[in-house]
Design brief:
The protein has 199 residues and is an alpha/beta fold. It has six helices and five strands, in the order E-E-E-H-E-H-H-E-H-H-H.
């Protein structure tokens, strides 16, 4: 690329691994085991930030590790608790009464908040948290945010924040329904889930 004078449009962040302490709210039960045999066994969640014309939008998502499907998401102007609790409500609504997935996050304040923890407790969901300062403990969710930003956000120009919001919604639909994955036998996340449940 250097010889041809080409430059990547995608920013690459270098990460220094730091094996931080386990939090006091919840242990790291996921232990970087980012695979699941069936839907709704293991979920991961996080929040990421976008900026357009000095306006910010925060995206909160939940991913099912069985097929890497984004099963719920919510956007907001500020990273308030409601951003995460509304997203969690959407995710929980997808569960059958017998389904109680492990839900893994980083040690962000949202996930330590009593209201969030009570929502999980009321539904019988076990909480898991990354070690402090170690984003690799939530690598599957971080990977999705990287894909979203490299394939969508960094490749487009937005006149306003509404264009960004609409584009994120479209991209998540594309990612779930059309974007194939080699690990899923060349199927999209939704196609793979349908195949697994039909087996």
């Amino acid at each position: 690329m250097r010889a041809l004078g080409l430059k990547s449009l995608v920013r690459v962040k270098k990460y220094k691994s730091y094996a931080g302490a386990v939090g006091t709210i919840a242990p790291d039960l996921l232990q970087r085991q980012f695979e699941a045999d069936q839907p709704n066994q293991k979920w991961v969640t996080d929040v990421t930030e976008f900026k357009v014309n000095n306006q910010k939008r925060y995206l909160s998502t939940v991913m099912d590790l069985s097929n890497r499907e984004i099963i719920a998401w919510q956007m907001a102007r500020r990273p308030v608790l409601q951003l995460v609790t509304e997203m969690l409500d959407k995710a929980l609504a997808r569960l059958k009464p017998s389904e109680k997935p492990l839900l893994h996050s980083d040690q962000g304040w949202h996930y330590q908040h009593a209201r969030y923890r009570k929502m999980l407790e009321d539904r019988g969901i076990v909480q898991s948290m990354s070690r402090k300062g170690n984003c690799l403990d939530n690598a599957a969710m971080e990977s999705f945010f990287g894909i979203l930003k490299s394939e969508f956000f960094h490749l487009k120009r937005f006149d306003n924040i509404e264009q960004l919001e609409a584009g994120i919604e479209e991209y998540i639909h594309y990612y779930n329904h059309e974007r194939i994955k080699l690990k899923l036998n060349g199927l999209s996340p939704v196609q793979y889930r349908i195949q697994v449940l039909a087996a």
